[in-house]
Every structure is written in C-alpha cells, then in structure tokens.
Write a structure and sequence with these properties.
alpha+beta; DNA Methylphosphotriester Repair Domain; about 200 residues; five-stranded mixed beta barrel; OB fold (Dihydrolipoamide Acetyltransferase, E2P)
Length: about 200
C-alpha cells in the first residue's frame, strides 16, 4: 500500500486511540475528594457527610421497603444520592443490613459523577460499592408496629394511644384504622400521647 499523507495521518490517529484506551484502562480516572460547596456538574468526586434526610417507603408495619433518595450534608451544602433498578435494591439491602439500620445522623461516603436535577446536585449510584457507612452515630431503635393485636393501640390518624380495652375512647376507633404497638415506649417515640382515661383507669 502506498504511504500517503492521509494514510500516515490515519495510522497515527489509530495508534493514538489504541494507546489512549490502553492507558485509561491501566490508569483509570480517580475521583477527587471534595466539599459539596466546591463541586460542579460533571465532577467525579468522593463526598463524605452526615445523612440529613432519607426518603423511604414503609409498609403498614413501618418496615422500610423502598428508598428513593438520601440527602447528605458535609457542613458546606447538601447533596442528593439516588439509585435506580438493581443499585437501588442493593442500597436498600445495605442500609437494612445494619442494626439499627443506617439512618439520619450516620456518617457516610459516596463516590460518583455529579449531575444536576431540578437545581439540586446529585450522584446517581451505579454500584453499591460507591456508597459506604464510615461511622454509625445514630443508635436510635428501629420502631415497628405489631402485626397482631396488643393492649397498646391507637388510630393511625390520631395522636392518642390506649392501653385498656374498656376505654370508651378506644372503643370508638374503627377496626380498619387501628394500629398496635409493642410497647408504650414505641408509641411515645412515634409521637403518641397516652389517653387520659387510660392514664386514670390503668
């Protein structure tokens, strides 16, 4: 084949692409650890911060069955962590693998590419290995409702709990709206106050 300037240029370009691909494979781009206030769209970063809020879905007994977003704060700003498909399932399983589960106040690390959605910075998790708990700081109990009737009950639409089946106020509750607690401590932790009638009559 006759070597022309065009052929030489094409050969050189092909060699450059091959060498660049091999170099990137052997030397992958490393994320940079940054504060949230320093990030911009497109950055490949490592962010460490406290979980400020978790957007989860619970079943009727308060077990967490899905997670849509985690908001972390490092003292300089907020960052959303989201996941879809299998990475979301893996994230949920990872969060629930701890007892008590990972929750607000815990210190975590996330790695990924910064994108912007509705004016908010976010990282979309592609692999559960990009999210990890650094330090468990919230040891508050995981509170669930009892699937079977107990002597501690309330309306899921009210703010008073009852401890007597003879309570005239408790008797007014519709069966389909009643929730049952394992303990009075659980009821109080969820924001319920003891009914005055039950308080006075035991």
């Amino acid at each position: 084949m006759k070597l022309t300037e065009k052929n030489i240029t094409l050969f050189a370009l092909t060699c450059f692409i091959i060498i660049s691909t091999v170099w990137l494979f052997l030397n992958p781009i490393q994320p940079k650890e940054k504060h949230i206030a320093e990030i911009k769209e497109g950055d490949y970063v490592i962010i460490k911060g406290y979980i400020q809020e978790m957007y989860v879905k619970r079943d009727k007994y308060r077990h967490v069955i899905n997670i849509s977003r985690i908001v972390i704060n490092d003292g300089t700003g907020n960052l959303d962590i989201v996941a879809f498909g299998k990475p979301r399932e893996d994230l949920l399983n990872y969060i629930l693998s701890y007892y008590p589960m990972i929750k607000e106040g815990d210190y975590v690390e996330v790695k990924g590419r910064i994108s912007v959605y509705q004016g908010r910075y976010q990282i979309i998790l592609n692999d559960i290995g990009d999210f990890k708990l650094i330090e468990k700081r919230n040891f508050g109990r995981d509170i669930y409702l009892s699937p079977t009737p107990t002597n501690i009950y309330a309306s899921k639409y009210g703010k008073k709990y009852h401890t007597s089946k003879n309570c005239p106020y408790g008797k007014r509750l519709k069966e389909e709206n009643i929730i049952y607690f394992y303990s009075e401590e659980d009821a109080k932790a969820l924001g319920y106050e003891k009914c005055k009638w039950c308080e006075e009559h035991g």
